[in-house]
Amino acid sequence: MDPFTTPGAFSWSELMTKDPQAAAGFYAALFGWTIEVMDMPTGPYRVVKAGGTPVGGIMGMPPGNGTMAPNWCPYVTVGDVDATVSHAASLGGMVLHPPTDIPGVGRFAVIADPQGAPLNVMAYLPQPG
């Protein structure tokens, strides 16, 4: 099973934190992860690799986050982000971040279940390979 092409599969996990460099050092020492830093328009993005395989990322808190605490949030692969967001809302979920394209990666959104637990949904672009 390829988690990037299988709808319903957990495919990525991302940490938003106030000190991404310190967090990357902590998790690298704790789990033996390797970290690759990518320059992004929003600042450095740290790709987390386990056994050489990219499994997640670490980034700074977005501007205007208020009192949001640092947190890990997983991504679930979907076939159609817009349809998933609409379906989640019809089931009583909330849209925390509307469907947005990430150039070269895919389309994502952040939803929350009726109790408020957040989850990222992502439709990945086909990758060469």
Question: How would you explain this protein's 3D organization?
Answer:
The chain has 129 residues and is α+β, with helices and mostly antiparallel strands. It folds into two domains: 1-12 and 66-129, 2,3-Dihydroxybiphenyl 1,2-Dioxygenase, domain 1, CATH 3.10.180; 19-60, no CATH class. It is 17% helix and 47% strand. The protein contains two helices and eight strands; from the N terminus they run E-H-E-E-E-E-H-E-E-E. It has an eight-stranded mixed beta sheet with strand order 2-3-4-1-5-8-7-6, covered by helices on one side. Strand 3 (43-50) and strand 4 (53-60) form a beta hairpin. The longest helix is centred in the N-terminal third of the chain and has 12 residues, at 20-31. The two termini are 16 Å apart. 17% of the residues are buried. The mean pLDDT is 94.
Main attributes?
129 residues; alpha+beta; 2,3-Dihydroxybiphenyl 1,2-Dioxygenase, domain 1; 2 domains; eight-stranded mixed beta sheet; 2 helices; 8 strands
H/I helix tally: 2
Strand residue content: over 45%
Low-pLDDT ranges: none
End-to-end distance, in Å?
Answer: 16 Å
Protein topology:
Layout: E1 10-17, H1 20-31, E2 34-40, E3 43-50, E4 53-60, E5 71-77, H2 81-90, E6 94-102, E7 106-112, E8 118-124
Parallel strand pairs: 1-4, 5-8
Antiparallel strand pairs: 1-5, 2-3, 3-4, 6-7, 7-8
